[in-house]
Amino acid sequence: SPASSRGTLVGAPPRIVGTQGRATDFNGSSQYITTSRRQEIPGGFSAVAWINVATGFDRVILSSIYSTDNTILWRVTSNGTQLDFWANTGVAQASASGLPSFADRWVCAGVSWAPGRATRFYINGVDVGGGTTAGDIQSPISAWHIGRYGVPGIWYFDGSMRMVRTWARTLPQSDFRRVYVDPYAG
User: Which among 137, 155, 152 has a CA at the least distance from the CA of 88?
Assistant: First the structure.
């Protein structure tokens, strides 16, 4: 990555031509990327990923590891018509549902979370909904899984993904729009 964060391909997901460059293609059952990037998340979190979801449910975009447990889960559900965000709980705490399906096409998906405040979701820089989040993220994050969630169940991403980025702060909508227009923006 531009920040020199290294990832390890697990299960040999192939590299393919994606939107605006190369992408990684995941099979939905055994492939993902893991990083050992340590990240403090003191009071907010945001993430962006260019995704092309194949059909299916519960497709994990990003999850985090704290010690040996997951603390963040960001996923696509309902065949690409809903985004969920979990913050250290066993259920989705915020969702944006009823979205036009973005299955089988590239979209720039984003999420912004602040403890005790609103979680917002973005598609191509547009705010598509969210909700209030009561949970808290355990920090520091000791690793990230791109395309996999492992505790307590195991879910994977089916489709292609590129340019997954995280921030240890809550981004405003203008930043999600800027990253959509220029994926290499800071």
Answer: 137
- Could you give the 3-state DSSP secondary structure of residue 178? helix
Digit-coded pLDDT (tens) for 160-171: 999 898 888 899
Coil, strand or helix: which one is 115?
coil
**Burial of 2 from C-beta contacts in 10 A (0-12 / 13-18 / 19+):** exposed
SS3 content of the chain, % helix, strand, coil (to 5): 5, 50, 40
179: helix, strand or coil: helix
Could you report the per-residue pLDDT of 90-149, keeping only the tens digit for each? Answer: 666 788 888 888 888 899 999 998 877 788 999 999 999 998 776 667 777 778 889 998
Altogether, the residues listed in the chain come to a count of 186
Burial class (CB in 10 A: 0-12, 13-18, 19+), 120: buried
Task: Tell me the HSE value of 145 on the side-chain side, using a 13 A CA sphere.
Answer: 29
Contact between 93 and 139 under an 8 Å Cβ cutoff? The reply is no
Residue 106 contacts residue 52 (beta carbons within 8 Å): yes
- Note the pTM of the prediction, 2 decimals: 0.89
